[in-house]
Every structure is written in structure tokens, then in C-alpha cells.
Amino acid sequence: MTTQAPAPVESDALGPSTPSHPWLVVTIREVVVKLTDKSFILSTALMVALIVAGTGISAFMAGRSTTFDLGTVDAETATVAQAAEQSVVADGDELQVTTFESEDALRAAVLAEDVDAGLVHGTEGYTLIGEDEIDPPLQRAVSSAVEDHVLSQNAEAAGTTLETLRDGATLTTTLIGEDAGRATAAQVAGFIFAFLFYMAAIMFGMTIANSVLEEKQNRVVEILATAIPIRQILYGKVLGNSLLAFGQIALFGVVGLIGVNVAGLASDVGWLLGASGWFVAFFVAGFIALAAVWAVLGSLASRSEDLQSNTGPVIGVIMAALFVGLFAQGAVLQVASFVPVVSSVAMPIRLLAGQVPLWEPVLSLLLTIVAAALLIRLGERIYQRAVMHSGSAISWRQAFRLES
Q1: pTM (whole model) above 0.70
Q2: Residue 323 belongs to a domain
């Protein structure tokens, strides 16, 4: 049979035993419980380890060089191979040239994997011999060297020089835009923004919902409600978990920045700071809005199965923010940057991609803040009614019909 617990007395009638800042008591309690939770500590440590490992692998791959072994059979092919060495070295790799007595010996060495490839010269030109495949960097270097060598010979036969033949044929690329050379870094940063928001919103959101549900099932909330107004419990839960999310994201960011600097991977990334600052602001507003919704979902449920079935819409919004960050472009991205919560990812990505008038991120952030405030007010009304309700799970509409 469904029962309704007595409504708690508001703080102004509780007397001197009531905490002066009830929400702060709940906030501290949420933070302390989480910081002493082994699973939370282990997951945070694992993510830090993954960031450090990823940075280390990137540094290792960036500083790693490959040594290619190229076989030749005569002086002419050896000359071409030496020319290819300059191109290979320019790419940060090395090239070793080995001369064999015959083409048969060279082919045997290729099959035995004593050399990576062999270069031979026949009546129809040069042939690069490999076993199953030839590394693309080596193939490109040898191809360029062969072309230069043949052109030089043909130019000499025509009574001119290779430089004369190439005069005016050089193509130089110059990027004159203000964001020149930043496209790849912007894409990577956009992916990181989207992933961090998605991870924090899902992980801490489910934590909030499960915490509310557990307190409701154990009737702990009824004990808390005798000393703390219910709406203050909601405020404390939202604020406590929000602080934990911000702290964890900040930790990941600091570890990542230290890693790229120690590994020597950091270049001129000062232009990222502006977009990163906006991301932090949007992250705060968007996460608080979602945190209020997660708390309400926990109060509406009566068991874990109910929670799993009614989280679809909020997870859909979070997924939309992720996909916008990964795939949206043009008008779709521009519209999404003004949709509260989704804009927490979309607007910072627009700021990374190019120049955006100042009024746009300001307006978008204000819309997100207003949406967060409205969701908290709406969540407060539903939470006060639903969290004290025992029995079966209820819907949002049913919660409005309950007495506060």
C-alpha cells in the first residue's frame, strides 16, 4: 500500500538545532562520501594513468625513428639509394644501403628479410623489390630519388640542367589565416571537450540518481528531512556532486597539460585558452542543469530497474551533445550552440573553429544558466513531493499531484 510520509518542517521552525546552512552540510557529506569511496578513487586513478600513458605513447611515437634497409646491385642504383637517404633522414628516419653481388642474391635477401627492399635497374627502368609489402615512406623516398636521377640524366643528354628544367615549377604553400595550422589541434580539442562533458554527465549523473534512490529506499531521507528542508538536500546533492565533477575534470586537465609539456609535445596552444575558459563556464552551467534532472529521476524511482528505464531522455540529451561535438558542422552546429546543455559542447567547438562574435557565446551561456535555474526550480518542486513517496515508481505528472 502506498504511504506518504509527513511533510518535514521548514528550517525557520526547527529551532536552534537547525544548521545555519543546511545545503552546506549535505554538500560536505556528498563530497566526503565520494572521496572515501574506493571505486571512485580507483576510477579516477585509472583515468589519470590512462592520460599519462597516452601522453607517453604519443611522445614515444613522435620521437621514434625507423631504420630502413635497402639493397642494391651496382653503382648506379647505389647512387639513387644514397639520394633517397636524404629524403628519409629529412622525415626523421634512417636508411642503410647494402650492395649485393647479383640480383639473385638481392632477391634472396629480400625473401629472407635481411633487407626491407631491393632496388634494381633494367632496360625499362628501375624496379623496387619487396616481399609482401614495402613501407610507404621508403617507397616515396626511392620513387622521388629515381625521378630526380632520371630527370638529371635526361637533362644532361639534352644539354641543360635539372635545375633549369624545374625552374618555375616549385609550388609553395602559405597559410595566411589567423588560425593557420590549428585545424587539427582544434579537432582534437573539440573531441576532448565533448568526451569530458559526456563522461562527467553520465558518471556523476548516475551517482546522483543512485544516491537519491538509495537514501529513499533506506528511508535515510526521512531522517535527514527532520533536520534539513528537503529542497536544501537537493541543493546540497547537486552542488556536492558538481564540485566533485569539476575537481575531477580539472585534475585530468592539469595532468594532461603537465604531460604534454614534459613530453615536449606542447607548441603554441595559447589560442586554446580562450575556448577552454568558455568550455569551463558552459560545463558548469550545463552540468548543474543535468544534475538537477538526475536527482529528480532518482526520487521518482523506487528501485534500480525503474531508474534504468526512466533515464532514456536525459541520456539522449547527453548523447546529442556528444554527437554534436564529434560530427556537427555548419548551420547544425550553429543552431546547436544556442540549445541549452547541448551548447555546453557546441559553442566551445565553434569558438575553436573560428571567429565568433562575443555576443553569441554570452547569449548562449545566459540561455544555459536560465535553463539550469528553471530546471533546478522544477526539480525542487518534484523532488520535494517524490522523494518522500514510498511504493511504486511515479511519473513527473503524478509527482506534481502529490502534496508538497
Answers
A1: no
A2: yes
